[in-house]
Amino acid sequence: MPSSRFIAKLAGVILAVVSTISCGIRLPDTPHIMKVEHAGKTFVSISQKAQDPDVLVWIIAEKLHTGMVFPYDWLIESGFIPPAGFGSPKYVTLSWGDRTAYVEKGLHTPWKFFKALFLPTPSVMELIPIYYNVVDVCHHQRVLRKLVPRERGKYLADFLNDCSRMDADGRPIVCGTSSWGGGLLLESRHIYFVPRTCNVWTVQATDTLGCCINPWLAISADGLVKQAEKPNNGFEKVWSGD
Questions:
Q1: Is residue 157 part of a domain?
Q2: 20 to 30 Å CA-CA from 19: which of 2, 78, 176, 209?
Q3: How far apart are CA 62 and CA 46, in angstroms?
Q4: pLDDT digits (tens, 9 = 90+) for 184-217
């Protein structure tokens, strides 16, 4: 018959094994309710508790046009108001520009091109969900990334909310579908004109994140990318495009 000492040792081994297994299983963080006030309305969303002090953001750049990509839960946590029923993607890409160019997927006549370039025109903000890695989805574009302090999100969210016209419920007004990716076009309250172009909008977005990019030297996508890669702005290129 086993001695009492043997039984005690066996019990200790079993307890240690159980303790090791339980410590190796990480339970999900308890979601918490985020309440966001905007235009006298309260919006409620459920998100995971923020742990990391810094957040990864991206600039995406085609030959002429730029936009930005952000973690969607960070935007919501920071106070960004999405259109109703948008869903819960991993990331979203946002950009801004002439409404006709976005709605009609380009400027297809000389008059429309002239009007967008030289006359004040209505604008939209494009909001596209991303469910995979940014480089995998935006492989045809140049991709730059940077870590920014989490608390910068509130300034970014204020800027993005201010870009949109809101409906009676305090939600952005949807006026069309995105040029790609199954997203939406949000009616903007700002006017598009040169030199206030899509790339200057990107400059303004980076300003809220603590960057310092000269908008006069960033009217072109190349001018913006060149400045974003400077040490004081800290974006690093992670993909050069196909």
A1: yes
A2: 2
A3: 34
A4: 999 999 999 888 899 999 999 999 999 999 999 9
